[in-house]
Structures are given as structure tokens and as C-alpha cells.
Write a structure and sequence with these properties.
By secondary structure, the protein is of the alpha+beta class. The protein folds into three domains: 106 residues, PAS domain (Beta-Lactamase), CATH 3.30.450; 99 residues, PAS domain (Beta-Lactamase); 117 residues, STAS domain (Transcription Regulator spoIIAA), CATH 3.30.750. The protein is built from eleven helices and 15 strands. The strands form three sheets. Strands 2-1-5-4-3 form a five-stranded antiparallel beta sheet. A five-stranded antiparallel beta sheet has the order 7-6-10-9-8, with helices on both faces. Helix 8 packs parallel to helix 9. It is rod-shaped, with a radius of gyration of 57 Å. The chain starts with 7 loop residues before the first helix and ends in a 14-residue tail after the last helix.
Length: 438
């Protein structure tokens, strides 16, 4: 029998080596399987983040766009399309969004972004319909994994409302500064916070007016009225005040002030006032009052003359016809006018006709007696004409003494008496008329 070598040890060694290789291969497979699983998780997470970022950009209120380095737009979110008025901008060159005279500035900005990686500032875009859109820009470069710039992106904030507010503010400031009326702002303690040019000129303090207290230059007599006005403003009510202010040079200026209170950003009340110099108005009012007084005085003088007319009928006689009611004031006017007329005309006879006087009482009778007595002191005689029967009865009943007063039934008779007296004083040889008896 032939014997073969024993191979068992060799087979066992080979099997052991094979089992080790299998374990190594299984470990590699397991490792690869683990890596693939982790990569799948990472890729899934990255997709979720990318989707979230896209949703964020798509729904952002701020306009966002991406532009290649050659200036071609590759992306614009809905806010950017709404801002510029274009439905689609993909594939368009960004220069279409700018005015031609702004292109040199745009080129400088692009160079700055590519060199420094970021640029922040303000500019304007050209809307599809041609009008300018003021914007605030925050732009930066997009780089690849190797760090090389591949695109640019920008976020644009519409500044139209802000620019309009600034324009309105500048317009308001220009209007206030150039307003003919004085305009000022003060706190409730009276400290001047703002004063326009007219206010500074009105007070004469110029720029020194800022920080002064408004109550310091109010006339002392108007201080109480100013305090009452302040209390009204504290209740949230508008107020009007006429006061006098003392200028730096000591002059006094009357002003009309319209004021109201407004809450400041720090919740403190401020007084806003509009002051107008009313010096010319006051002078006009004073002049009008003086003219009105002159008119009144002239009217009174005219009324006195009309109510107590004195008519000369010869060189030595005057007539005063009286009409209407006679009160104490008019009775004194009669005496004054009669005395002035007799003295002015050097009359020797004054005829007082009361035909038009309806009521003669004690007051009227006494006035006539006083007039006659005063005229007699001037050397003239009073003739009372036009006494009606009922007036005669009244005088008798009142017991009025007409001593020193000559009477006649009618004015014509009194005139005849005056003419007869004038005839008697003519020189010899002068022609005379014959008076007819009534």
C-alpha cells in the first residue's frame, strides 16, 4: 500500500486564510454600505436646506437677483420682477435695468464687487415703463468651491416711499424757513426748540433765540393771558392769543399767535406756534377809530346845526326855527347856538320860532327863558313866535314867566317887527317900505 503525504495542515491553513479574506471583504462591504447610507442622509438633508432656501428667496419681500459675470441675469425672485415691472428677466442683460447715463457708475460698482467681493450703497433702477426706482443695494460675489467668482447677487430695497418722505420734509423745511409768518416750536416750559427765519427776525434775537424761554420776552401785561393759553394747550385744544413781545432792541411788537400742542416722540408735549406781526393792523385800527370818532363828531356838529339852525335875515336880526322834541341836551344846544349867533352877527333881535315844536313843557319853557336872559345880557332882544293856543294854555298852567321875552303869533309878524326896527335905524332920506299888519 502506497502512503500519501498528510495534507490536512495545509488545507486548514488555506481555509483560515480564505475565512480572513471573507471577513475583510465583508468589512469593506459593510463600510461601503455605511458610507453610502451616510451620503444618502447628507444628500437628503442638503436637498431639504436648498428647498427651504429657495422658498425663502422666492417669498422674500426684498428684491433679489443673480447675474453672471458677463452681466446676464440668471435669476430674479418675484419681488424683483414686481419692483422692475418685468415678468421674466432670465437671459436678459442687466444693463436694460439701468439708465444710459448711469452705466459708467454701474461698471464701477461691478468692478468693486469683483475685486472686494461686496458693495453696499444706493442707486436707482429703470422700471419697465421708464421711471426711476430709487433703491438701496447690498451686492456681493458668488464663488465656486475653488474660490473663483462665478456670479454676482444683489438685494434691492425700494426707497421710493423714503425718498418721497425726504422730499416732502425738504419741501416742508423750505416752506417753513421762507414763510413770512414767524413759526416756532417750544416745550411746555417755554424753551424755544426751533424758530424759523421770520421768528428770529421778529424778536431781533437771531440764532440766540434757540434755547431762550418764550415767556421772557412777552410783555408783562400779557403774561397772565399767556399762562391761560398754556393751560388750554395742555388740554389738547388749539389756542389763539394776541400779545405784545419785547424785541431785543427794546421795541414792542403786537402779535397774533395761533398755537396747538403736539406729542413728541419721547411722549412730551410740544407747543407749535404761528405768530404774525399785527403792528400795521393795529395802526390801521387806531386810525380807523380816530376817523370814526371824527365822523361822529362831525355828525354831531351837523345835527346840532340842523336841530338849532340860525339864519340871519338882516344886519341886526337872526331867526332860529325850532322843530321836533326838545330834551335837556338840545335845550342847552339852543342856548349855546343862540348866544354864539347873536355875538357873531352882532344882532339886536333874535327871533325864536316854535311853530314846529309839538310839546312845550317846563323844561322847554325854562330853556327859552334862560336863552332870553342870556341874549339880553348881550344887549339883544328875543322874540318868541309860533305860540299855538294849546302851547299858550300849557305855559299858563305851568306858571312859566316869559318876562323879558317879546311874543308874536306868527313868524311873519316877528320878521316884520325885525324889519321895522331895521327901517327905523336907516339914515334920513333912505327909502322905506310900509309894513302890512297881519
Amino acid at each position: 500500500m502506497t502512503m500519501t503525504p498528510d495534507t490536512t495542515p495545509d488545507l486548514e491553513a488555506e481555509n483560515a486564510a480564505l475565512r480572513q479574506r471573507v471577513r475583510e471583504l465583508e468589512a469593506q462591504l459593510a463600510a461601503r454600505a455605511g458610507t453610502a447610507s451616510a451620503s444618502s442622509v447628507i444628500n437628503h438633508k442638503t436637498c431639504e436646506e436648498a428647498h427651504g432656501f429657495r422658498v425663502l428667496v422666492e417669498t422674500a419681500l426684498q428684491a433679489i437677483s443673480i447675474v453672471r459675470l458677463d452681466g446676464v441675469v440668471t435669476y430674479a425672485n418675484p419681488a424683483f420682477s414686481a419692483l422692475t415691472g418685468y415678468d421674466r428677466l432670465d437671459g436678459k442683460h442687466m444693463t436694460m435695468l439701468y439708465f444710459e447715463h448711469d452705466l459708467p457708475l454701474l461698471e464701477a460698482i461691478v468692478r468693486h464687487i469683483q475685486n472686494d467681493g461686496v458693495w453696499r450703497g444706493s442707486g436707482r433702477l429703470r422700471h419697465r415703463n421708464g421711471h426711476a426706482i430709487p433703491v438701496r443695494i447690498n451686492a456681493f460675489v458668488i464663488r465656486n468651491d475653488a474660490g473663483h467668482p462665478v456670479a454676482m447677487t444683489g438685494m434691492f430695497e425700494d426707497l421710493t416711499a423714503e425718498v418721497q418722505r425726504e422730499e416732502r420734509l425738504r419741501l416742508f423745511e423750505a416752506l417753513v424757513e421762507n414763510a413770512p409768518d414767524a413759526i416756532g416750536v417750544a416745550d411746555f416750559a417755554g424753551a424755544i426748540l426751533y424758530a424759523n427765519a421770520a421768528y428770529k427776525a421778529l424778536t431781533g434775537y437771531g440764532d440766540d433765540l434757540i434755547g431762550m424761554n418764550g415767556f421772557d420776552y412777552i410783555h408783562d401785561e400779557d403774561y397772565r393771558a399767556a399762562q391761560v393759553t398754556l393751560a388750554r394747550l395742555a388740554e389738547g385744544k388749539a389756542a389763539f392769543l394776541e400779545a405784545r413781545i419785547r424785541r431785543k432792541d427794546g421795541g414792542i411788537v403786537p402779535v397774533a399767535a395761533t398755537m396747538y400742542a403736539q406729542m413728541s416722540p419721547n411722549d412730551r408735549l410740544r407747543i407749535i406756534g404761528f405768530l404774525r406781526d399785527i403792528s400795521a393792523q393795529k395802526r390801521a385800527e387806531e386810525e380807523r377809530f380816530a376817523l370814526q370818532q371824527q365822523v361822529i363828531d362831525a355828525q354831531r356838529a351837523a345835527i346840532r346845526e340842523l336841530s338849532t339852525p340860525l339864519i340871519p335875515i338882516s344886519e341886526t336880526a337872526v331867526i332860529m326855527p325850532l322843530v321836533g322834541a326838545i330834551d335837556s341836551a338840545r335845550a342847552q344846544q339852543i342856548v349855546d347856538a343862540l348866544l354864539e349867533g347873536v355875538a357873531a352877527y352882532r344882532a339886536e333881535m333874535a327871533i325864536v320860532d316854535i311853530t314846529g315844536v309839538q310839546v312845550v313843557d317846563t323844561q322847554v319853557a325854562n330853556a327859552l327863558v334862560r336863552a332870553a336872559q342870556a341874549v339880553r345880557l348881550l344887549g339883544a332882544q328875543v322874540v318868541l313866535t309860533g305860540i299855538k293856543p294849546q302851547v299858550a294854555q300849557t305855559l299858563v298852567q305851568l306858571g312859566v314867566s316869559l318876562e323879558g321875552i317879546r311874543t308874536a303869533g306868527t313868524l311873519q309878524t316877528g320878521v316884520r317887527l325885525a324889519m321895522m326896527g331895521e327901517t327905523g335905524r336907516r339914515k334920513p332920506g333912505a327909502s322905506t317900505g310900509t309894513a302890512r299888519n297881519d
